[in-house]
Amino acid sequence: MNRIASLLFTYLVIAIIVVSFAAANDTSSNNNNNGNGNGDGDGDGNNREEEEEEVRVPVIDLGPWLLEKTKTKTNNDKTLLTEEQRNIIQLIRKACKEVGFFQITGVIDSDDDQDLFQRTWDASREFFDLSTNEKLLHQTADSSKYPYGYERTETLTKGKMIDNEDDNDDETSSSRQQLADLKETFAVGPPDENGSGMPARQWIDSSSNISIQDFRNSLEAYYLRMEDLALIVLEIFAWALEESPSFFENKMDHHMSALRLVHYYPLLEQQQQQQQQQQQHSLTTTTTQNNESSIRLIRAGAHTDYGALTILATQKNGLEVLLRDNTNTNNNTNSDDKNASDSSEVKQRWFPVPLVPGSLIVNLGDLMQRWTNDEWVSTMHRVVMPSTEAHERRYSMAYFVNINGDTPIEPLKCCRGGGGGDDDSTKYKVITAGEHLMAKHLASMGISADEKEDDIESTVNSEL
């Protein structure tokens, strides 16, 4: 276990940057105790096309499941489930197959949960309000030994900042890249006692402006709450995958999950001037899907997550998912979609994920897609924001679920074509979750995405 964990340290140093894009669903906060704002979007919601887009990511109430949680966890007989529980399983199965994203409600309704969320949001803001010098004291001196703590990144993503732009426009390419991914993060790994093999958490008392103990207490309590919620979601996944309800429990007893706070700080006056220059140099002024004229800044470039799933708390709209476009392709306003799609036959476009008060966003990662033999999907997503909001602070909290590193990842029985366990009906060889993450790390280090998976796994095995 320690050998796998040590090999993953290098991966995590880079993955902590790449995977944190998922956490960047734009967030700032005004007046919501459960951490989800007032639900106001960038448009008035009256456009029929926009309404059609919003239903692409379903909202599922887990309240009925939680009421019967004790019964469902100890009994494998699906006939004893309530009708509401069976409906929840069906809805989540459908979402995982078709979208890879869904929103859950009914899980943070209690006063205790709302208080916990508010305390964690407050702790996040207080920390990021510290001076840069103070925050840098929380930055690890040796990321190979401690891949968590404070991280300030600025030019991590080479990608499109706005729709309808020409990538060959050298005149503004530099400023575009500088404006992408302006954010800072703070991350913690698994609890010291969970046996993951990851390094112990580090808490540094760097300032008299905040109580590091309160900061620590808030993050640790939030981490544990998300850990419990992840196990509930995984239990429903097990039912949906026709496995035992406890299937994932022994795969999460020394997991390597990470909690990441993300802050998109306001753009400076000089950066706002660069925005205006970009708008002047663009071939056309970008028209957003709600018909607003504005430069659409991509604050987190298009990506998928590496692990099993992600649970995201957000207070602002901005998250978009890349899905099949069932509308008339002539109405597609996002010219960069054709670059994000690998198929000329299947048209895709970016669909906004609307903010739903009292909800959390769940998305599948690449590991879950592999585990289900591509039956479930890890969907490309990004975060955009209009230039008119560039001066606003945005926050989010993402809990990345990474199962035990020594768990064998083999396509599940229900996802092998005929369901008979024929190896010929599986798309992937058996590797561990740790090897999967290492393969993702190697790919980020320069292995072509077009190379055969056998070559990637061969490289992984040589490293091990």
Walk me through the structure.
- This protein is α+β, with helices and mostly antiparallel strands and 464 residues long.
- It has one domain (54-69, 79-157, 179-281, 295-324, 346-461): B-lactam Antibiotic, Isopenicillin N Synthase, Chain (Jelly Rolls, Sandwich).
- It contains 14 helices and 14 strands.
- The protein has helices spanning 2-18, 48-54, 63-67, 69-74, 83-98, 111-128, 132-136, 170-179, 212-240, 269-281, 337-340, 366-371, 433-444, 453-463; strands spanning 59-61, 101-105, 149-153, 183-188, 258-264, 296-303, 309-314, 319-324, 348-352, 360-364, 381-386, 394-401, 408-409, 431-432.
- An 8-stranded mixed β-sheet has the order 1-2-10-7-12-5-4-3. The protein has a 4-stranded antiparallel β-sheet with strand order 6-11-8-9.
- Helix 5 packs across helix 9 (212-240).
- The longest helix is centred in the middle third of the chain and has 29 residues, at 212-240.
- The radius of gyration is 22 Å and the shape is globular.
- Mean pLDDT is 75; it is low at 13-54, 154-180, 279-292, 329-343, 448-452 and 455-464.
- Keywords: Iron, Metal-binding, Oxidoreductase, Signal.
- Residues 281-291 have a biased composition (Polar residues).
- Helix fraction? 25-40%
CATH structural class:
Mainly Beta
Order of helices and strands: HHEHHHEHHEHEHEHEEEHEEHEEEEHH
Q: How would you sum up the major sheet? A: 8 strands, mixed
Q: Looking at CATH, which topology would you report?
A: Jelly Rolls
